[in-house]
Amino acid sequence: MDFEEKLMQALVFIFDCDICGCLYHFSECLNRKAQKLSLLTHENEEETRNLIKNLKNLCFSNNNLSEKLKELKLQYQVKLDQLSNLEQSASKYLNGLK
Known about the structure:
Distance between the termini: 25 Å
Number of helices: 5
Order of helices and strands: HHHHH
Structural class: mainly alpha
Helix content: 55-70%
C-alpha cells in the first residue's frame, strides 16, 4: 500500500486543494543537479545551499515563478551558466507538476 498516495488523497479531500508533487523529490533533484555541476565545493557551498533552499520555497509561492527565478538569479553570484542549468532543472520540475 502506498501511504504517500493515500495521504495526498486525504489532504485533497479534507482541504479541497491541488497537490502537484513531492517536495522531497524536488529537493533531491536540486541537490543532485548541484552536485553534478560541482556547485557544492567549499568555496560556494553556503551560497548554493541558500539558493537550493530558496528554489524549494518556490513551491509555496503563488506569484509568478518566472519573476521569482529572475530575482534569485540576480540575488546569487554563482556562475551564470551553472545557475542557469540549476534554474532550468527547477523550472522543468515545477512545470511538470502542473
